[in-house]
Amino acid sequence: MTEKYKITLLPGDGIGPEIMAVTVEVLQLIGKQFELQFDFQSALIGGAAIEATREPLPEETLAICRQSDAVLLAAIGGYKWDNLPRQQRPETGLLGLRAGLGLFANLRPATILPQLVDASSLKPEVVEGVDLMVVRELTGGIYFGLPKGIFTTETGEKRGVNTMAYTEGEIDRIAKVGFETAQKRGGKLCSVDKANVLDVSGLWRDRLTLMASAYPDVELSHLYVDNAAMQLVRAPKQFDTIVTGNLFGDILSDVAAMLTGSIGMLPSASLGASGPGVFEPVHGSAPDIAGEDKANPLAMILSAAMMLRYGLNQPKASESIEQAILQVLQLGYRTGDIMSPGMTQLGCRAMGETLLKVIASQESNC
Ligand code: NAD
Prior knowledge:
By secondary structure, this protein is α/β, with parallel strands linked by helices. The protein has helices at residues 16-34, 46-53, 59-66, 90-100, 124-127, 168-184, 199-211, 225-234, 246-260, 298-311, 315-330, 348-365; strands spanning 3-12, 36-42, 70-75, 105-111, 131-137, 149-152, 158-161, 188-193, 219-224, 241-244, 267-271, 277-281, 333-334, 344-345. β11 and β12 (277-281) form a beta hairpin. The structure holds nicotinamide-adenine-dinucleotide (NAD). Nicotinamide-adenine-dinucleotide binds at residues 15, 75-78, 91, 94, 263-264, 280, 283-289, 295-296, 299, 337. Residues 6-355 form the Isopropylmalate dehydrogenase-like domain.
């Protein structure tokens, strides 16, 4: 039976529309192969929305997103809007979307594709085979805790304050995403905290340990954040899924991402307790190459693969896209950002067409 899904497309700015167009074609073909029917609806966000409505996140966009099964976002921003007041800037639209959909969990994989081992700044033997996922809490912790601000003390000295706070409920819901993500991957979950110093981390560790009994198929371990940072660059292959708070996750997900060395290859997912998740590449709108057919669409297409796996529970369709990308790279095709000697350089559209051919041939091989 054909499964039907409503997908909101937010192409945004810069290279966004180019990489989104290619991704939609890939999804349409995958849909035919796996009996999935996608009902796509496009909406405005970022600079494109500012031009049309003067707002970076029109109410209509949020309403369309809320009614869909998943949201695919390309990228927002550009030079033109860089000097607008904060409330009117493209980035405010992105934050509004995350808040409006209650997205508290951010999933960022770092997978070293065998064909791109040399793109990493670390030695091939250290990074070869790395396949890890950082699950970061996105709406709590020190970025949102109160009190916060710059206050003046009794002696007239200024004092900057932020508060790292998590309730049991906030910890439990991100822990659940961590355990369930580990279940869909290699079954190992490493919780990262600073429980040797921070009380909030002590509570974090207690809750994770308590919840582990509900997931007997997941092996839980704990690391202090300083050690986790060290281990990520020393021996990253030991990790399968990492779950951590907002601040630690912000830093560790960037460290993990850079193990791969190529920004045009990194997807992400942001999930809430219910309702649609948002799936988007980690990179920005790359205004320096916008409109030149030079963008690498693979991070966007891998984000669509994450949508299939984590948003729509269609792991086979997701894997089919991932395998096709591996095959395209194996055949020696590269976009400019991941180009290396001896490979064949393609533009954004040609990369999409090549991928479509490989996906079509996968079907005929079934
Ligand atoms: P960027 O990620 O857009 O670009 C950094 C560099 O990487 C550029 O040289 C760019 O050409 C290259 N690059 C990025 N994605 C690429 C791709 N898919 N293929 C090939 N090359 C790629 O970051 P930036 O230059 O710091 O920011 C540009 C704009 O994007 C800014 O307005 C910024 O606010 C915005 N931004 C948006 C997001 C988002 O939408 N989530 C994230 C980061 C930055």
